[in-house]
Structures are given as structure tokens and as C-alpha cells.
């Protein structure tokens, strides 16, 4: 018994030491302090003590209760933090955690989901390339230009003209949003990029020897010397230099054609040679050519011709050009000036060297492999060979036998000839050629699109009818240079698919007689912004010439007037509208007519329920809401009297050509063609645009 009692006291003391130890005290919920001050005590049942000791590996049964100390509230609060050290989890209060409200933040802008314009292109693959225009993209996808321009706006691109070149990445996004598959023609194929000859356009006043200079340059070619000289008219030709270099010259019929080609997207010119007569100086068409060259953003080389004449004064010409803002090399600028004579053929070598030097600085290169990208320079109808198109290849290789779409025409290339008349199998970049095999005559500036099959060419030809686009030339004069640039940029925002706003000339100062002469020559309007009113003599000369002068001091008023002129000048879009609807109440049949008169006919007795009916309109027959027949109206009568118009609520009898399938209860619609003009929209912040339908 004594040993047993001593054992109890030993276990009792050992248990107390265990419970007050640092490591095991945490296991049962005590703090690490050895002092038990501030603690409360209670009894633990004997079974609980036995369970604890058994869990500790001791097989000892206690017969007497043991005192266990619990922490106070302060120690319990500290204990909750200490529990994390041994992996004990504190039970959460409540079923749900409290949500902490955060201050609102600005949500990022999410662009609207782009609307696909068609679902029929999912199985179609569209070939794209760098620099293709919206018009070319519309031809390949079969969609309208306006719908593709809407996609460009949704993609964040600035839309100025459907003839502006697109980056290949932008074109890929547009085609993908249109619902078609994309194939980059020249991403891998265009690895073969080689230097190409420079393409030069010769411009100048009509009497300054442009044609003579072209003939003289053509005769300096190595090939021309071997052929004995070529003097016939050619739209383009290549001058081969003894060094092996080549220069492609374009003979444009006039500045208006040059502007029209640029408006149609035919940016084939790399360099402009401006011809000025040494005895005549700068003339109005010279200024017009300067404006065209500046707007085309191409380098210019000045060729002062007729230097062999006794009255020649090249220095005066240089001063006149400098006064027009042409910074010549002799005056610290970058525009080269060469003195030549087309009659004596002096200075031609210097002119060719200047062209090659400028071309070397431009580092002209082009893709050689892949389908060709070409533009038509001129076209004519030959009695024996049919339609002939002179084209210049910009990139790729044009191969004989390919199917092509040229503007609104198509065909299979039957023959390719170079400008000397020799047959060739292929045409490479900057090479002018004459192609045969088109079904019709294209227009200057039309692009040549190569397709795989004849069926594809027919389909693209049907979709390639570009809306009529007119040109509105403007001459801008303002008080200072900064204002001139701002007004010009604002006016160019009024470009639309139907009207091309072409700023042909800008200047600082009041409106002068030369401005009126230039406007009369190119049919332009004169815009004066923040300048004095012209003298009465100039105003009378403008009125006599039919030139309109617009003067403003507020940009909004100027945009409003010019924008309304653009709307009036736009050809508009033809649309079919339902002008009226009538219900068939009875059917009459005329028999016994002669065969020459067309046999029996059926007359529909109708009551006009809405709108009006016109004899000159087309009629559409509907049955249960579905179209049954459509054709022109051949007869419209009221009480056996021929009439031209039937208003709402009246009864009439009408005959539709070729339709004998009337039934009582059918609905007949009267269809009319209306011209829908564009709309001028000016926002509150002064941004103007023309919206076409």
C-alpha cells in the first residue's frame, strides 16, 4: 500500500511537471509560462486522465482525480496566436466569412464585339498582301467597300479613302472579322526581294518640250540604238544604261489623268521630272504639276529644257521655282536641277545620272516571286488584237496564261509584249508591258488582280464595280503657313468613297489672279481663310471664268460650305424603294389578240392600299409574303383610261410584262429607283465627315 501510495504521488508530481512544460503544455492548451498565477482549476475525471496517459504511451490507471489548470482570458487570447506554431486550427465563427468592401475602381475599356458581316465566307480563303487597298480587299471578299470600312473603324484604323494602302496585319484582321480564312501570299513567298528600276513620270507645261524630251531620252537607250530609234507614241518605255541600270519612264497624257490615277490608287510613280522651258519660265501648269508632285509625296527633279535657245535664262527659272517653295540644291535644298536640251540632246546624261542617284538614295526594292500586283497606265482598242492594256508591275511576276481581273473587266492573258513589241513569257517589277486577252477595255489606274480560275475571275468581275467617284479640286489660301496646313488637313477629312477632295495648290497671302487662272485650268474652287477680300477685278474674272471663291474666318463655317458642295457633287447611290402596295381584287383576261400583239394577257384589278403606283416603275408580285414575279409595268388604267400615276385609295387595272399568274388576294408592290445622297456630319468638337450609304 505504501508503495502504491508513493507511486500515486510520483505520478501526480510527474504529471504536474509534464503539464507545466513548454512543449507538451502547448499540446493541451497551456501557455509556456511555468507560473500558474491567474489560472483556474477544475477536476478531470479519472477516465480522461487514463486516456491521456494511454495516448502518451503510459499504461497506468489512476484511481484518484487529478487537478488540471486552465488559462485565464488574457492568456487565452495570447494562446490563440501561439496555436499556429504547432498546426492547430482555430474554428471559424459563423458559417460565412465577412466580406470586406473595397472602394470602386475604374473598369478597363472593353471594345464592343465586332459584328461579322457575313457567314458565307467560312470556307473561303482570301489571299492578302502588304499594301493592298480596301477596294482590292472588297473584290477578294465579295463584300462592299462601306462594310469593310466599318470594320476598319471598329478596329481603330483611320479611314480616309478606300484607295489608301493597308498593312498586311490590318488586312488580315479585316478578312478574319469578315468570316473568311486568310492566306498571306508574300510572307514566305516574298523572301526574294530584289532591287528594281525606278519609275519616273515626266510632267510640265504643254509647250515646254515634254514630248521632245521623252523622245530624246528614248533614243538614248541602248535597245533603241540597236533598233534604229523608236519615235512612235508609247505609254511607257525603259531606258537601258550602258552600266546595266534601267529607268522606266511614264508618258502621262496630262495632269488631270495623273491626278485621276492617284485618286484610283495607282501609286506607280517613284519620281517626277518637272520640265520647265528656259525661255518661258514657270507657267500655271508648272505650278499645277508642282502641286500634284507635292500631294503625291514623291521626289522631284527639275529639268530646265530649251537651254540651246538664245533667249534662255535658266537662272530666272531657278529664282521662280525658289519663290514657289522649291528648295533647290544650289540654294541649300535637296531638289536637283539639270539644264538640258531635247533638240541638241545635251545634258541628257546628267539628267539620267541625277535620276539614278535619287533612285539609289530611295533604295527601291520589290518582291519578285508570287502573284503580280500591277496597274494599268493606258488602254486602247485595237482592230485586230482587241483590248490592249499597258500595265506596270509593282511587285511579283505577271505570267502569260494567268487569269486576271482588271477593274470591272476580266480575261486570261493571251500575250505579253514588252514596249519594243517583243513577246515575253513574264513581266517583273517596274517592267511596262502590253497584255492581250481581256474581255473589255479597262480604265487608266485600274489594278490588275491575279486569280486562280476563270470562275473566280467572273465572280470578282461582278463584284468589282466600283461606285462612281468624282473629284473636287481645291486651291487653299490663308494668312500664315500654319493656318494653311490646318485648313488643308481639315478639308481632306471630307474625302468620301464618292467624292475625292483634291487640294491641288496651297499658298500664303491674298487671292491673286494666278490663283484664278489655275482654278480655271483645273476646274477648282478657291478657298480663302482669314485673308482679305480680293479686288473687284479678280472677283469679276473669277465670275467670268465660272470659278467659285469661298472666304471664311471660322473653320466650322468653311467645313459646312465645302461639305455641302461635296454632298451636291456626289453622284449618290441608287436604291430600290417600295413606293406603294396594292391588293388584287379581281382578274380580267383579254383573249383573241393576234400573235403579233403577244397573245392573251391578264389584267389585275387592284386597290392601292399604301403609297402610289407609277406606270414607269417595276412591279413585284407577292403571294403569302413570298416573291412570285417581278417585271416592268406595261399598262396602268383607271376606268379604261391610261394614267401615269394612281394614288392611295383608288382602284386601277395593271399589266405586268410576262406575268399571267395573278390570284385574288395577291399583293403587288410598286418599286422605284431613288438616288440617295451622302450626308454631312459635323461633331461638336468640329470634326467633319461625309457618311455614304
TrEMBL record:
This is Translation initiation factor IF-2, mitochondrial. It comes from the Eukaryota. Signal peptide: none annotated. The lineage of its organism: Eukaryota, Viridiplantae, Streptophyta, Embryophyta, Tracheophyta. Its main location: mitochondrion. The keyword DNA repair does not apply. One of the essential components for the initiation of protein synthesis. Protects formylmethionyl-tRNA from spontaneous hydrolysis and promotes its binding to the 30S ribosomal subunits. Also involved in the hydrolysis of GTP during the formation of the 70S ribosomal complex. Keywords: GTP-binding, Initiation factor, Mitochondrion, Nucleotide-binding, Protein biosynthesis, Transit peptide. Residues 195-365 form the Tr-type G domain.
Amino acid at each position: 500500500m505504501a508503495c502504491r501510495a508513493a507511486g500515486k504521488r510520483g505520478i501526480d508530481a510527474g504529471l504536474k511537471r509534464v503539464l507545466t512544460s513548454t512543449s507538451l503544455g502547448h499540446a493541451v492548451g497551456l501557455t509556456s509560462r511555468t507560473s500558474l498565477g491567474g489560472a483556474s482549476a477544475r477536476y478531470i475525471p479519472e477516465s480522461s486522465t487514463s486516456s491521456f496517459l494511454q495516448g502518451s504511451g503510459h499504461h497506468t490507471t489512476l484511481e484518484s482525480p487529478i487537478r488540471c489548470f486552465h488559462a485565464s482570458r488574457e492568456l487565452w487570447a495570447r494562446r490563440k496566436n501561439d496555436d499556429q506554431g504547432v498546426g492547430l486550427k482555430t474554428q471559424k465563427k459563423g458559417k460565412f466569412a465577412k466580406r470586406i468592401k473595397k472602394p470602386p475602381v475604374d473598369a478597363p475599356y472593353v471594345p464592343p464585339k465586332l459584328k461579322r458581316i457575313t457567314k458565307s465566307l467560312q470556307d473561303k480563303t482570301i489571299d492578302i498582301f502588304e499594301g493592298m487597298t480596301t477596294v482590292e480587299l472588297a473584290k477578294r471578299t465579295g463584300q462592299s467597300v462601306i462594310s469593310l470600312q466599318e470594320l476598319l473603324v471598329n478596329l481603330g484604323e483611320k479611314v480616309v479613302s478606300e484607295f489608301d494602302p493597308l498593312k498586311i496585319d490590318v488586312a488580315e484582321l479585316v478578312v478574319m472579322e469578315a468570316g473568311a480564312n486568310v492566306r498571306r501570299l508574300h510572307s514566305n513567298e516574298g523572301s526574294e526581294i530584289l532591287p528594281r528600276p525606278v519609275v519616273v513620270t515626266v510632267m510640265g507645261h504643254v509647250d515646254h518640250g515634254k514630248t521632245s524630251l521623252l523622245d530624246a531620252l528614248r533614243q538614248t537607250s541602248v535597245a533603241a540604238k540597236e533598233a534604229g530609234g523608236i519615235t512612235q507614241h508609247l505609254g511607257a518605255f525603259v531606258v537601258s544604261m550602258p552600266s546595266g541600270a534601267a529607268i522606266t519612264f511614264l508618258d502621262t497624257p496630262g495632269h488631270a489623268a495623273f491626278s485621276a490615277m492617284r485618286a484610283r490608287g495607282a501609286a506607280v510613280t517613284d519620281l517626277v521630272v518637272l520640265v520647265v522651258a528656259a525661255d518661258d519660265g514657270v507657267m500655271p501648269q508648272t505650278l499645277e504639276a508642282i502641286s500634284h508632285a507635292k500631294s503625291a509625296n514623291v521626289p522631284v527633279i527639275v529639268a530646265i529644257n530649251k537651254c540651246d535657245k538664245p533667249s534662255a535664262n535658266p537662272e530666272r527659272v531657278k529664282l521662280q521655282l525658289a519663290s514657289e517653295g522649291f528648295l533647290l540644291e544650289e540654294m541649300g535644298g535637296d531638289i536637283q536641277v539639270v539644264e538640258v536640251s531635247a533638240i541638241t540632246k545635251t545634258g541628257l546624261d546628267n539628267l539620267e545620272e541625277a535620276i539614278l542617284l535619287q533612285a539609289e538614295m530611295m533604295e527601291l526594292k520589290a518582291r519578285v516571286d508570287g502573284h503580280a500586283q500591277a496597274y494599268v497606265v493606258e488602254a486602247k482598242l485595237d482592230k485586230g488584237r482587241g483590248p490592249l492594256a499597258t500595265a506596270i508591275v509593282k511587285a511579283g511576276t505577271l505570267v502569260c496564261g494567268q487569269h486576271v481581273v482588271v477593274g470591272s473587266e476580266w480575261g486570261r492573258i493571251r500575250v505579253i509584249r514588252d514596249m519594243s513589241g517583243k513577246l515575253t513569257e513574264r513581266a517583273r517589277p517596274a517592267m511596262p508591258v502590253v497584255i492581250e486577252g481581256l474581255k473589255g477595255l479597262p480604265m487608266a489606274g485600274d489594278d490588275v488582280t491575279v486569280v486562280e480560275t476563270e470562275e473566280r475571275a467572273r465572280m470578282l468581275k461582278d463584284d468589282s464595280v466600283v461606285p462612281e467617284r468624282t473629284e473636287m479640286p481645291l486651291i487653299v489660301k490663308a494668312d500664315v503657313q500654319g493656318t494653311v496646313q490646318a485648313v488643308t488637313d481639315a478639308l481632306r477629312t471630307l474625302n468620301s468613297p464618292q467624292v475625292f477632295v483634291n487640294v491641288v495648290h496651297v499658298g500664303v497671302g491674298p487671292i491673286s489672279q494666278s490663283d484664278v487662272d489655275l482654278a480655271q485650268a483645273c476646274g477648282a474652287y478657291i478657298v480663302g481663310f482669314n485673308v482679305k477680300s480680293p479686288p473687284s477685278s479678280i472677283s469679276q474674272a473669277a465670275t467670268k471664268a465660272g470659278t467659285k471663291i469661298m472666304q471664311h474666318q471660322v473653320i466650322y463655317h468653311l467645313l459646312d460650305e465645302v461639305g455641302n458642295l461635296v454632298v451636291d457633287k456626289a453622284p449618290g447611290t441608287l436604291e430600290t424603294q417600295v413606293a406603294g402596295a396594292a391588293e388584287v381584287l379581281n382578274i380580267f383576261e383579254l383573249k383573241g389578240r393576234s400573235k403579233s400583239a403577244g397573245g392573251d394577257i391578264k389584267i389585275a384589278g387592284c386597290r392601292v392600299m399604301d403609297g402610289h403606283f407609277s406606270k414607269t416603275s417595276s412591279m413585284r408580285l407577292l403571294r403569302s409574303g413570298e416573291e412570285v414575279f417581278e417585271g416592268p409595268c406595261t399598262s396602268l388604267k383607271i376606268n379604261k383610261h391610261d394614267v401615269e400615276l394612281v394614288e392611295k385609295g383608288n382602284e386601277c387595272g395593271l399589266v405586268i410584262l410576262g406575268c399571267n399568274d395573278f390570284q385574288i388576294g395577291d399583293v403587288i408592290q410598286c418599286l422605284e429607283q431613288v438616288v440617295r445622297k451622302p450626308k454631312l456630319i459635323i461633331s461638336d468638337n468640329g470634326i467633319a465627315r461625309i457618311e455614304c450609304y
